[in-house]
TrEMBL record, chain A:
It is found in: Cell membrane. This is Carbohydrate ABC transporter permease. CDD domains: TM_PBP2. Its main location: membrane. Pfam families: BPD_transp_1 (PF00528). The keyword Cell wall biogenesis/degradation does not apply. It comes from Nocardioides glacieisoli.
Length: 288, 367
């Protein structure tokens, strides 16, 4: 008896070790597939055009050059970056504020029509974004704001999924907190602003990241909201680089440099706030 | 007792004030636009002036007829080509990205595994990066003499010129198996067809160029779905799995009978999001191929955009968008039907029956 059980144990341990080894092998293989494109992106952006084409696999740039970045800054790239920053900041601030307001009302304030508003919100979330391209252009044009900053910002200001996230979070805050303030005579907005909102920090951070990332990476809306080159954002400007002025030649370093620079801000936000994203990032997922 | 009423009125006022900015923005940039576009899809508006001006011709269902009817000509064959492309795209992307995400989550969920955070981050990172940046990187990776072809070259494989290759994968596979000659398709398939495309064209499969976009999207999206599966897996109590193991179930048995049923709601979520997302593919097509080569990466979303903003055929473009909307709606409804919980339906029915019986009993008692 005792011998058989002591024989069985190492066998189990061996099998576990084998599974673990297999798991690491699989994970390392896929980690390579996931990280290598970014390595290529970084190294290629420091290569010369001919080096990039001749030695695409080489992990070092020979000669090492900043010329792709210099040429990139001779284009409208800086202007696009400024536009992207302006639009992203406005959209993020607006979205976080408006989504929390609406989310709080739907979670906590009792008013007639609340159920109907919530149903409407769910219906809105079900409308696929891409079919709205032409409709949105029609309205922007009709309102006379096509080709302006408001056209870039206003339609992105509210995100039904964001309202949903905030509503769900506010519902987890105990009501007793607000009651104390209400007895002291604080107004609803005062309670929302000074009592509830500070308690909603994790949800606010999550919404900030999602809004930042969503508006920084947005492409289709910017395509249809303006055609004025002064209003191009990074996604629109860089996206048309390939088909336009730089697409003809084999100018891979410059497109890799552009891709690298526009990835850096989201990468920083991602690594700083990762824990919030991993926990809640799936809540607002709608990317294809 | 006037205090409660004034509080209630104050609450109503506050409630509507809080939701009104959201309602205004969503109404103005979502509800109103959809109605406007619906109107435009029944007109011949050319993009100049107001679509409501008196000179705009109301053409009834002509735009829709042009998409699916006999007189459609080039428009119809373009639209059908885009539907075919997107169909094969969805057919490959949704199952593959779901299976791949589930696979990664299962591997990462192993106990005793170290550095889970590193791998999770690596797999999730592409999900937060702009589709434009990723498209540019893939343009380079899959260029004629690019990274992928150099790697294939190293193992003695002559890679295709990915983005210039419009050959369909099914055509190539059939050719490889000796079923047909791809450069001289069988007449029965090539000479007959439906909706403006020959059977041969319908059955092409995704082109080589489209399969690069397929790989890109699976690579990008799997991370998000992996997180969803991971979250669900962590909800599954270890004891349940252990109990099944003690009862003599093998790894595969536990997976099939314990893990998979537990993941069903997540599976529904992941496949629904996948379906909605894949029928809308646009960014990658816009940046990488603009529908080419040979229209083999054309998708309804991109075609609709191009018809409106490049060809000024707004009515037809709006009609395309609405047809696309119907397709997405039908697909997700059908899929929800497939995933419907048979047990829950049975319980609901049983509950209704008992209620009815009880109501009959009480009604009888009262009489």
């Amino acid at each position: 008896m005792s011998t058989s059980s002591s024989n069985a144990k190492p066998m189990v341990r061996d099998r576990t070790a084998l599974w673990l080894f297999l798991a690491y092998a699989v994970l390392l293989f896929f980690a390579f597939i996931y990280l290598y494109p970014f390595v290529v992106q970084v190294t290629t952006s420091f290569k010369t055009n001919s080096d990039a084409v001749a030695n695409p696999l080489s992990p070092t740039a020979d000669p090492f050059t900043l010329s792709a970045f210099q040429r990139l800054f001779d284009t409208d790239f800086p202007l696009w970056a400024v536009n992207s920053v302006i639009v992203t900041v406005l959209v993020t601030v607006g979205r976080v504020f408006l989504c929390s307001l609406a989310g709080y009302a739907l979670a906590r304030i009792k008013f007639r029509g609340r159920g109907a508003v919530f149903t409407a919100l769910l219906a809105v979330m079900a409308v696929p974004g891409v079919i709205l391209l032409i409709p949105k252009f029609l309205v922007l044009n009709y309102l006379g704001i096509y080709n302006t900053y408001p056209a870039l910002v206003l339609p992105l200001l509210v995100d039904a999924a964001g309202v949903f996230i905030m509503k769900q979070f506010f519902e987890t805050i105990p009501e007793s907190v607000e009651e104390a303030a209400r007895i002291d005579g604080a107004s609803t907005f005062r309670i929302f602003w000074s009592v509830v909102l500070p308690m909603a920090r994790p949800a606010l951070i999550l919404l900030t990241i999602l809004s930042f990332q969503g508006s920084w990476n947005e492409l289709p809306h910017f395509l249809i909201a303006s055609q004025d080159p002064d209003l191009f954002t990074l996604t629109k400007g860089v996206g048309t680089l390939t088909s336009g002025q730089l697409g003809s030649g084999q100018q891979y370093p410059i497109s890799m440099a552009a891709a690298l620079l526009m990835t850096i801000p989201v990468a920083i936000v991602f690594f700083v706030f990762q824990k919030y994203l991993v926990r809640g990032g799936t809540a607002g997922a709608e990317k294809g | 007792m006037s205090r409660p009423r004034s509080i209630r009125r104050g609450q109503a006022l506050a409630g509507w004030t809080f939701v009104s900015p959201t309602l205004v923005v969503l109404g103005l940039f979502l509800a109103v636009p959809v109605l406007m576009a619906l109107w435009v899809s029944f007109t011949d508006w050319n993009g100049r002036g107001s679509p409501f001006a008196s000179g705009i011709g109301f053409v009834g269902a002509d735009n829709y007829r042009e998409l699916v009817g006999e007189q459609g000509g080039l428009t119809r064959s373009d639209f059908m080509t885009s539907l075919r492309n997107n169909f094969f795209y969805v057919l490959l992307v949704v199952p593959l990205q779901t299976a791949f995400a589930l696979f990664l989550a299962l591997v990462l969920n192993q106990r005793m595994l170290r550095a889970v955070g590193f791998f999770r981050t690596a797999f999730y990172f592409p999900s937060v990066v702009s589709s434009v940046a990723i498209s540019l990187v893939f343009l380079f990776l899959f260029s004629g003499g690019g990274v992928v072809n150099s790697m294939l070259d190293a193992i003695g494989v002559d890679g295709p010129t990915w983005f210039n290759d419009s050959r369909g994968l099914l055509h190539l596979v059939g050719d490889g198996l000796g079923l047909w000659n791809a450069s001289d398709p069988p007449g029965a398939l090539a000479d007959n067809g439906v909706l403006g495309l020959s059977w041969w064209a319908w059955l092409s499969g995704p082109s080589v160029a489209l399969s690069v976009i397929i790989m890109l999207v699976i690579w990008t999206t799997a991370g998000t779905f992996m997180l969803m599966f991971l979250a669900a897996l962590q909800d599954l109590p270890l004891e349940v799995e252990e109990a099944a193991r003690i009862d003599g179930a093998g790894r595969w048995g536990v997976f099939r009978n314990v893990t998979l049923p537990h993941l069903k709601p997540t599976m529904l979520l992941v496949t629904t999001l996948g379906l909605i997302g894949t029928w809308q593919v646009f960014d990658q097509v816009y940046v990488m191929t603009q529908g080419g080569p040979g229209k083999s990466t054309l998708t309804p979303a991109y075609l609709s955009y191009a018809y409106a903003f490049e060809n000024q055929k707004w009515g037809i473009a709006a009609a395309m968008a609405f047809v696309l909307f119907l397709i997405i709606f039908a697909m997700t409804s059908f899929q929800r039907f497939l995933f419907r919980d048979k047990d829950a339906i049975a319980t609901k029915r049983a509950a209704k029956r008992t209620k009815r019986d009880r109501a009959r009993v009480t009604a009888g008692g009262a009489a």
